[in-house]
Specification:
4 helices; Aminopeptidase; alpha+beta
Length: 153
């Protein structure tokens, strides 16, 4: 897989990827607005055939960055795409001047937790009842990774 940068023009592609990854909709119009916002970084992973297989969205504000969303198509998981996207986002956030990258992950999302821990994220807090799942609520773990300054030149 390889990573390419994207923007508001790719909102429909992102919307389709999100819907497959999370089995819920994210309207292309809303996504396009988000993608056009200040500091937003959009990355798409393309498979060997050049087809979109996953995405990562981040946002940099001053010296902090946030992973907004990451997802791989169900049939494209466990091939290193998630890690590739995360590493690429880390690089871009550091280049944009961020000193730390934060994210939230549901306590029951074992795959994502393993991905983040393996990529050097550490637990920084808990948000009680952050995710609503029908009538139930699931806590979120806040995770943080310090970023090294981008190499000069
Ligand atoms: C989480 C997600 C993005 C991981 O993407 P991926 O491309 O499958 O991840 P990778 O292949 O790069 O895996 C990297 C590491 O993460 C961990 N990991 C990934 N999937 C895992 C799983 N199902 N179970 C346990 N560990 C897992 C492993 O440590 C893996 O390394 P390894 O394959 O060498 O063991 C993917 O499962 C996904 O899209 N899930 C649905 C959307 C989602 O939950 N997004 C995160 C919301 S916070």
């Amino acid at each position: 897989m390889r990573i390419v940068e994207a923007g508001p023009a790719e909102a429909a592609v992102l919307s389709a990827l999100y819907e497959s990854a999370f089995a819920e909709a994210w309207a292309p119009e809303q996504l396009a607005q988000l993608l056009a916002g200040p500091g937003v970084l959009t990355l798409i992973a393309l498979d060997e055939a050049g087809e979109p297989a996953g995405y990562a969205l981040g946002r940099v504000a001053a010296d902090e960055a946030e992973l907004l969303s990451i997802g791989l198509l169900p049939g494209r998981r466990r091939r290193g795409g998630g890690r590739l996207l995360l590493d690429a986002l880390v690089d871009r956030c550091a280049s944009a001047g961020a000193k730390a990258l934060f994210l939230e992950v549901a306590t029951d999302n074992a795959a994502a937790l393993a991905l983040y821990r393996g990529a050097g994220f550490r637990e920084a807090g808990i948000r009680k009842g952050y995710y609503k799942v029908g009538a139930a609520a699931v806590d979120a773990i806040v995770m943080k990774r310090d970023l090294l300054p981008a190499a000069a030149g």
